[in-house]
Design brief:
- The protein is an alpha/beta fold and 420 residues long.
- The protein has 2 domains: 161 residues, 3-Layer(aba) Sandwich (D-Maltodextrin-Binding Protein, domain 2), CATH 3.40.190; 192 residues, D-Maltodextrin-Binding Protein, domain 2 (3-Layer(aba) Sandwich), CATH 3.40.190.
- The protein is built from 19 helices and 16 strands.
- The strands form 4 sheets. Strands 7, 8, 11, 12, 13, 15 and 16 form a 7-stranded mixed β-sheet that branches. Strands 2-1-3-14-6 form a 5-stranded mixed β-sheet, with helices on both faces.
- Helix 11 packs across helix 18 and helix 11 crosses helix 19.
């Protein structure tokens, strides 16, 4: 469920055998000074400790074999990879609270996990190369000024457009929301709709990009609502203005590129990982864009997300676990590139590695210049409040100012809970 899992994470059971080999050994170090070791006698190296590393079940062929191979190459610790085939998040949350302890695991950094002291800060691990990540991606790993996750790869969403459709309609690739609305209107003809952003009229996928388009954000200053501003309602109203130009009722939702490939939508907002399928079907008759800005005070954007490697605070071998995370996700750039690009089309998280991926040059530029992420303070409850408000604006024609105010109050309450 690589894609399904990411949607669940981003919109946001161990076995007895693994428990036995995962985290029961206290990390050993050099033995204390002893008369048994005289000058000139080499002390024995510390024995490798056992570490348990957890993954969710990627559907892409070869991922499980690859991550198992990575672990086997590591020399400083014995790393046992656990593949969790069912409800990964439920199993992980239970394990973080009560065991069996995964020393290293993938997921998303959340405020609740940090507040419950379940994660080990990784500032010392990432410190030397922190500038090799986009600021927005690192911000998504940061709570109270400390970094708790090392990004493994990036998934992003972009606006795909059919070059031939735009050319025939005399439309330029849109750079502002008004241009997007006008382009979608002109492209909606002969059984084709101008834009597909989901069967909910784009409420779930475009709420964040609409905020960024206005120069706003989900949360600001790490503590307050980032869209308590009239510009948020102005941006959300643009989604309502798209009524009549949006494809609705598609057999698949926005993550499925088939409406775009089949030509029933001239533009589609969807995951970049669909690029190989789109390219195979349309050859060079497509382009990609960031989501357009509202005006000169706003900014274009592409959401960046993905899973990160974290270290469990209850690990008996936390230092060894940190060393392994550093080795795999910061030092072994060959593994990082393979992991991101060989098993489905994803992007390496580190900018220096991203630059090596030639087929992703356009996407890499968008990520560098326009990548934005919802941070750990943006909880599922906060997201639900905002998406429902935007949905009422987009689908039902509800008043943007009234709905935005209601969402602001709901998010204020959630942020208050987090700070209590």
């Amino acid at each position: 469920m690589r894609k399904t899992s990411r949607r669940a994470f981003l919109a946001l059971a161990g076995t007895a055998a693994l428990s036995a080999c995962g985290s029961n050994t206290v990390q050993s170090g050099n033995p204390p000074p002893s008369t048994a070791y005289s000058a000139g006698v080499t002390r024995p190296k510390p024995k490798p400790v056992d570490l348990a590393q957890w993954y969710h079940p990627y559907p892409d062929a070869g991922v499980q074999e690859a991550v198992t191979r990575y672990a086997a190459v590591y020399q400083k610790s014995k790393v046992a990879v656990q593949w969790n085939p069912d409800d990964y998040e439920t199993k992980l949350n239970a394990a973080l609270q009560a065991g069996p302890v995964p020393d290293v695991f993938e997921g998303q950094v959340t405020v609740d996990r940090v507040r419950q002291n379940l994660l080990v800060p990784l500032d010392d691990v990432i410190g030397p190369v922190r500038n090799d990540f986009t600021k927005s991606l690192l911000a998504a790993q940061t709570v109270d000024g400390k970094i708790y996750g090392i990004p493994q790869s990036i998934d992003t969403q972009v606006l795909f457009y059919r070059k031939s459709f735009l050319q025939e309609a005399g439309v330029q690739p849109p750079q502002t929301l008004d241009e997007l609305v006008e382009a979608a209107r002109k492209l909606s003809k002969d059984g084709v709709k101008g834009l597909f952003a989901g069967n909910d009229a784009g409420a779930a996928t475009l709420a964040g990009p609409l905020l960024w388009a206005a120069g706003l954000d989900y949360v600001k200053d790490g503590k307050s609502v980032g869209f308590d501003d009239p510009r948020a309602a102005t941006a959300f109203a643009k989604l309502r203005d798209l009524n009549g130009s949006l494809l609705l009722g598609a057999s698949g939702d926005w993550a499925d590129p088939i409406p775009f490939i089949d030509g029933v939508a001239a533009m589609q907002w969807t995951w970049l990982w669909n690029l190989p399928k789109i390219q195979e079907a349309l050859k060079d008759d497509f382009g990609i864009l960031a989501f357009p800005r509202l005006d000169g005070a706003g900014a274009p954007s592409v959401p960046v997300s993905g899973l990160s490697a974290m270290v469990h605070s209850k690990s008996l071998n936390a230092n060894a676990a940190k060393d392994f995370v550093k080795w795999l996700w910061l030092e072994r750039v060959d593994f990082q590139q393979e992991f991101a690009t060989k098993f489905g089309f994803h992007l390496p998280a580190r900018l220096s590695v991203l630059d090596r991926v030639a087929p992703a040059a356009d996407a890499a530029k968008l990520v560098r210049e326009n990548g934005r992420a919802a941070g750990p303070l943006w909880t599922p409850a906060a997201n639900t409040a905002l998406v429902e408000a935007v949905g009422r604006i987009a689908r039902d024609g509800a008043d943007p100012a009234t709905e935005t105010k209601a969402a602001v109050e709901a998010v204020k309450a959630e942020l208050g809970r987090l700070s209590a």
